[in-house]
Fold AraC family transcriptional regulator.
Amino acid sequence: MIDTGPSARTVSLPRGRQRLHTMPTSAGYEVRENEVYDWDGRRRGQTPFTVLQHTISGTGRLRYESRNYRLQTGDTLLVLVPHNHRYWLAKGERWEYFWISMNGEEALRIHKSILSAVGPVLRLQPSTIDHLADCSVRLITGAVTPGAASAVAYEAAMALYDDVFGSHAFADEKSAMQPVVDYIKANLDRPLRVADLAEISGLSRAHFSRCFAESEGIPPAEFVLQQRLQRAAKLLTKADFLPVKEVAIMCGFEDANYFSKVFRRLYGTNPTQFRTTGMYASMGNHR
């Protein structure tokens, strides 16, 4: 792409009988330097489409709703039109990039889900960037039929989707949550508020709760309660010299009545009966 120099193509193809769910509207590669380049998402018409623009080098600027971004090498911009945003080249700066614009119900759905999850500025894997660049080149140089153009645009949308929501992304989130999980397990005798756990993770409470649930399969408050009860079940049978009230305190339950209530809800019996019947020995999934 870089070797061939700046190029662009507005994709205007004859419509088929069926509406295609993903359709490119333009693609290209450009270098802008110390010139007027300014796009306002509220002034580009009312027909919905998306813009995916990757910064190869230089710097671009983005104001998205009330937040400002400085787009640098490796950043990928994703915006929906019409929308309250603006991206531009600041005076005296240089911006090298490639882009793909597309519309269609599926393209809009996928890109809206990505924007909702991670926002308008992405840090993609190198392999994804190469894949998107290849899609842009193919749209510029070929894809002369509606079906061929739609297939390339859908391929680009799916490459982006896999990068944001694929297995590696969940693995990253799981590893990011591990310090929180370790902290919970080491402090089950103490108050463990979701706000404090979010602070450990470095995320906002809402974003932390979403990431934790995706990583561990349940919300953080439910995970804490589950861990407390699992420890209680173990102590009730492995440390039978401890009074039930002491077990409750060691597992973070200040109210013995509440402890008994939630314990019964999970195990179907109260803590004293659980201890005397030896249920723990037959419940390997609670070890």
Q: What stands out?
A: The longest strand covers residues 23-33. Residues 177-277 form a domain with the Arc Repressor Mutant, subunit A fold (CATH 1.10.10.60). The mean pLDDT is 87.
